[in-house]
Design brief:
Layout (H helix, E strand, L loop, with lengths): L12 E4 L7 H8 L8 E5 L1 H11 L4 E4 L13 E6 L16 H17 L4 E4 L4 H6 L7 H9 L4 E6 L2 E5 L6 H7 L2 H17 L7 E5 L14 H15 L3 E6 L1 H4 L2 H4 L4 E4 L2 H12 L4 E5 L5 E3 L17 H18 L2
Parallel strand pairs: 1-2, 1-5, 2-4, 3-4, 5-12, 7-10, 8-9, 8-10
Antiparallel strand pairs: 6-7, 6-11, 11-12
Helix pairs in contact: 1-2, 3-5, 7-8
Length: about 325
């Protein structure tokens, strides 16, 4: 991503409003009430935001912007909005497959804006995978969709204060995980994790702990041989290239201060091996970060929370954390 701006870190951050029946619009209205480290542009249907603000009885002034408008910092109660029209009316809490293409259009707008240098990063509110697939559109998740739009190989990492957890595999059924993990995958994911911890987080020599796949990291082969045949050879190869990796370690003891105090990140083998620990530690303040892409993308650590949409009970802590994380990553990437 390139820009001719002398201060590229002041480029706006795009925020997609997510599933229109969920809490994404509520969160966008909430962040309008606060100041932020970078200018923001919300990608959404302005009518949706106005409808939700009226329901929540929250002040909102919308300033629609085009692809060329300069974006100043907003004042309290104001949102700069790049308009994308919905396909159908929205009732909070009630999913409509008719709006699935609208959701994907907001993501396309944000990704293309990042690639063109219009936006410094994209922050995504939650989408509902099920209703998008119900509309007949194959959709695994934000991570894979944005990778297809922008290129690169996506690596999912969640972070909260004091802990970063990346995933070797993401949204796979558990019975498919072992077959998906091979030496080339482990090497590729760890290479991206090491590179982006340096490039995007300013860590000169990242220290990465690697989970085993099996209980007790395979117990010397008695509980599975993936550690011996796949993971350890991959780690040996990476060590020869100067990557500071330790493992494979039993996941049930890795997430303790003895290990975490000397690590910058953990690589888990599958989704529910690493993320329950991180979300227990920092739910509501954690950030979902996609590594390996040519753009900066962060997101919330929760779902659409349909039951909270339009109630005023949704909390914006994770979205705010995602905005601050994206701003910091952009500053590190674009600063001279």
């Amino acid at each position: 991503m390139t820009s001719t701006s002398k201060s590229p870190v002041r480029l706006p951050i795009a925020v997609t409003a997510g599933e229109p029946a969920g809490i994404g619009p509520d969160l966008c209205i909430e962040i309008a009430q606060q100041s932020h480290p970078s200018p923001l542009v919300v990608i959404a249907d302005p009518d949706l935001l106005e409808e939700r603000a009226a329901r929540l009885k929250r002040p909102l002034r919308i300033e629609t912007v085009s692809a060329k408008d300069p974006i100043p910092p907003h004042s309290p109660g104001q949102l700069h909005v790049a308009p994308v029209p919905r396909n159908a009316h929205t009732t909070p809490g009630r999913l409509s497959p008719a709006n699935s293409r609208y959701v994907l259009e907001t993501l396309k707008h944000a990704a293309q804006g990042c690639l063109s240098g219009r936006y410094a990063a994209v922050v995504t509110a939650p989408v509902h995978k099920g209703v998008i697939n119900q509309a007949g559109i194959p959709f695994t998740g934000h991570t894979e969709f944005l990778a297809e739009l922008t290129g690169g190989y996506p690596v999912m990492m969640l972070a909260c204060p004091g802990l970063r957890v990346a995933l070797t595999t993401t949204h796979l059924p558990l019975r498919d995980v072992a077959d998906a993990i091979d030496r080339s995958l482990v090497e590729r994911v760890l290479g991206i994790l090491d590179r982006d911890l340096q490039r995007r987080f300013g860590i000169p020599k990242p220290r990465i702990l690697v989970c085993g796949l099996n209980p007790h990291a395979g117990e010397g082969g008695y509980l599975g041989r993936e550690e011996i045949d796949v993971i350890e050879p991959a780690l040996q190869s990476l060590r020869k290239r100067g990557v500071a990796v330790e493992g494979p370690l039993p996941a049930d003891t890795l997430f303790t201060p003895k290990y975490l105090d000397r690590a910058d990140a953990v690589l888990a083998m599958y989704h529910d091996q690493g993320l329950p620990v991180l979300k227990h530690r920092g739910f509501g303040q954690a950030v979902n970060i996609t590594l390996g892409l040519p753009i900066i993308r962060t997101s919330v650590d929760h779902g659409t929370a349909l039951e909270l949409a339009g109630t005023g009970m949704a909390e914006a802590g994770s979205l705010l954390a995602a905005i601050y994380e994206a701003s910091g990553m952009a500053e590190r990437q674009f600063s001279p």
